[in-house]
Amino acid sequence: MLHWLLDPWSDPINLRALVEVVALGATGGALGCWIVFYRLAYSAESLAHALLPGLVVASLAGAPLVVGGAAGLIVAALAVAVAGRTPAIGHDTAVAVVVTGLLGLGALLALSPDTPARLQELLFGDVLGVTDADLALAAGLGAIVIGALVVLHPSLLVVGFDRSSARALGRAPLVVDIALGILVALAILVAVQGLGNLLVVAVLVAPAAAARQVTRRVPAMMAAAVAIAVAAGVAGLYASFYLDTAAGASIAAALVLAYAAAHTARAVRGARRA
Questions:
Q1: Scanning 109, 169, 195, 234, which has its CA 20 to 30 A from the CA of 127?
Q2: Distance, first Cα to last Cα, the chain
Q3: Integer Cα distance of 47 and 76 in angstroms
Q4: How far, in Å, CA of 138 to CA of 167, rounded?
């Protein structure tokens, strides 16, 4: 049994993937709770697609692709937050307009013959292909996101639970919305390295959604979300190693199963109380 548990981590590739999913789990689990509270799952998924023009522009300019992706995500987050404040547009419409425009721009720029060969890797991810530099980036950006969440925690609570009274309590909802949007963008930049934009939302939403089924207080929900995200990531890597399945898809499947298990547990508990 011990050999079965430790054998996957004897390979440096799998060991780096393990460190990556732990970093993703800590960042995505904590931030995901606010994504769920603020109903930003659709926005997070859309922002993941908005990194395309930033990547292409960075490539054409000879800048690091990660920097370009970060710039594209931050611009998209700010544009969505500002456009969503217009009553005539609405938040969902603002997200669709901004992200569709950025995605179209990226597609046009990608027609250039100078488009990088690694662009596809950043779009679809490869958690088993992360490098030491990727791990350092994930750890650094993850620390920034978690540190910002600690500082913004009181404001996030006030705006999230009583937006109408936030100004009277000295909190500016627009500032909080923009700050949260930027943090979501940074978290996407962390996760896209391993999971790609097609699966990145799974680690940002599923753990928090599962934790919400079994907890009632925010601190407990965050702790549970981080634990679920890390456990699902490790389970996905085990499945990938022993079942020879795609690592990213296996992690996403484990996250979905975790949510299904939490939802079932809540339903059973509610039935017993009834």
A1: 109
A2: 41
A3: 7
A4: 35
Q: Is the pLDDT of residue 147 over 90?
A: yes
Length of the chain: 274
Q: Give the type of residue at 48.
A: A
Q: Is residue 78 over pLDDT 80? A: no
pLDDT attached to residue 231 = 94
Please tell me whether residue 240 adopts helix, strand or coil conformation: helix
